Amino acid sequence: MSTEGEVRKASKQFYTGLNRMLNGNAGPLQDIWSHSAAVTAMHPIGGLHVGWDAVRESFEKVAELASGGKVELKDQLLHVVGDMACEAGVERGQVKLAGRPVAIDHRVTNIYRREAGAWKMIHHHTDTSPAMQDVLSSLQIPPSKTGTDR
């Protein structure tokens, strides 16, 4: 398989895990992410999460509220240089957060790094979602409390 094909496979694994998270199970995301203290995520719920523990916790917190979700990456652009890869596109789908339907329509950038021969995600960044933030606000869960923010 080509290097680009390997990264596309990692992307597919990430979106499979993300779909599981949007249905209440964040566990599968653990396999695609690097567990480094330097990984970062900027989710549609807001905040900057730094380090694997904070990123994992942010996905787990959303999984507790999520059900009936599905997201797909559209308009994928991929650029691979050596052991790093950058992916850009648009995430589209829907999810119920705390029982409230929310549309997913975010620009996204994902960065992968080859670690011990496997491609692992080291950064995930989407637009913020006012609709998701409204749900969290109505539950009195500020976005900054969904993970370690900087």
List keywords for this structure.
alpha+beta, single chain, six-stranded mixed sheet, Nuclear Transport Factor 2, Chain: A, 40% strand, 150 residues
- The total count of helices amounts to 3
Shape: globular
Low-confidence stretches: 144-150
- Main β-sheet, spatial strand arrangement: 2-1-6-5-4-3
- Strand share of the residues? 35-45%
Helical content stands at 25-40%
How are helices and strands ordered from N to C?
Answer: HEEHEEEEH
Beginning-to-end CA distance, first to last residue: 38 Å
How would you portray this structure in words?
By secondary structure, the protein is an alpha+beta fold. 28% of the residues lie in helices and 40% in strands. The protein has one domain: Nuclear Transport Factor 2, Chain: A. It has helices at 3-21, 52-65, 130-138, and strands at residues 40-42, 49-50, 66-81, 84-97, 100-115, 118-126. The chain has a six-stranded mixed beta sheet, sandwiched between helices. The termini are far apart. Mean pLDDT is 93; it is low at 144-150.
Give a concise summary:
The chain is α+β, with helices and mostly antiparallel strands and 150 residues long. The protein is built from three helices and six strands, in the order αββαββββα.
